[in-house]
Write a structure and sequence with these properties.
alpha+beta, Beta-lactamase, three-stranded antiparallel beta sheet
Length: 305
């Protein structure tokens, strides 16, 4: 990593000469396997600090997608027979969909609407309690790109027998969630101004009530998916083998493979590492399993390549 960061490259030098301005954090893991296939991981970091806030943007969709699968497994244990392909509808929403479709949208085109549907299914309390149980630092408090994004009341959700049979097999009632205190970490005030209700507000934006998912946590979530044996049972996501394979496959899926326009949703639309500065096709021999985030001047990519 030191060799790269000290490279004689104008773009890298510009960042390295102004590290405070760019607020760069890098966490890289070297993966080694011995002759028996046993995995060992060695982490290398640059300016990684959980106490310095950055806005996680769409990367919060990653744990929410995993927790949605964990929740249906918990419901199944209570004799509620819903799965990845069970149709459901969120109150006041315009579509009937499935978890498979919504999670696929999250990883291929980073759909806010898809994330918000899963957020309604889980709620703040469930999400944050699960993160705490798994020893993942952070909190997820709000929806994305939606009116009343930080509402503490989740909406009613109905699950149906099938696409052809609208019999309700499970009804999840609206629920009240706990209001959390403001974040007490550094750099929660960002920028010189921001747009609110189509007007420019000339003061730093306060992120103390926003989502918080530091780099170590994102990195740890990725490790839990690909190297679960390195974590205790309590720290893992409780997914079936089928669900895990679905997540892994979906994380590398490119938008065009799900029918999206390659012109609008080019291959690197959600793949920043290596190809983020071009819009050409990503070679088939390169597989990137990841989730990106991009908002309020913050750009993040959590990837296994």
């Amino acid at each position: 990593m030191d060799v790269i960061l000290q490279a004689d490259n104008a773009k890298i030098k510009r960042v390295m000469e102004n590290p405070d301005s760019y607020q760069v954090q890098i966490l890289y893991t070297q993966i080694d396997r011995d002759k028996h296939g046993k995995v060992s991981l060695t982490d290398y970091g640059y300016q990684v600090d959980d106490s310095i806030y950055f806005y996680p943007a769409s990367t919060v969709k990653f744990p929410v997608a995993l927790l949605a699968l964990e929740k249906i497994n918990e419901l199944k244990a209570k004799n509620v027979s819903i799965n990845l392909d069970t149709p459901f509808n969120v109150a006041s929403d315009s579509i009937v969909t499935t978890l498979r479709k919504e999670i696929t949208k999250i990883f291929t085109v980073s759909s806010n609407a898809a994330y918000n549907r899963l957020f309604e299914f889980l709620g703040q309390d469930y999400i944050n309690e699960k993160l705490k149980q798994k020893e993942i630092a952070g909190r997820i408090t709000h929806r994305l790109g939606a009116p009343f994004a930080d509402s503490l009341i989740t909406k009613e959700i109905l699950f149906y027998e099938s696409e052809k049979d609208s019999s309700v097999i499970f009804r999840q009632s609206p629920a009240s969630n706990t209001k959390l205190d403001k974040l007490n970490i550094q750099n929660v005030l960002k920028g010189d101004g921001y747009i609110e209700n189509e007007s420019l507000v000339m003061q730093p934006k306060d992120f103390s009530k926003k989502n918080y998912l530091p780099l170590k946590s994102l990195h740890g979530i990725l490790k839990r998916i690909y190297f679960p044996d390195l974590f205790s049972e309590d720290q893992r996501f409780k997914l079936t083998k089928e669900q895990l394979n679905f997540i892994i496959k979906t994380m590398k899926t490119l938008p065009y493979e799900e029918g999206y326009s390659r012109k609008e949703y080019y291959d690197s639309y959600g793949k920043f590492f290596i190809f983020g500065d071009i819009k050409t096709e990503i070679p088939k021999y390169v597989e990137i399993y990841n989730k990106v985030g991009y908002a309020y001047g913050h750009l993040t990519d959590c990837a296994y390549i």
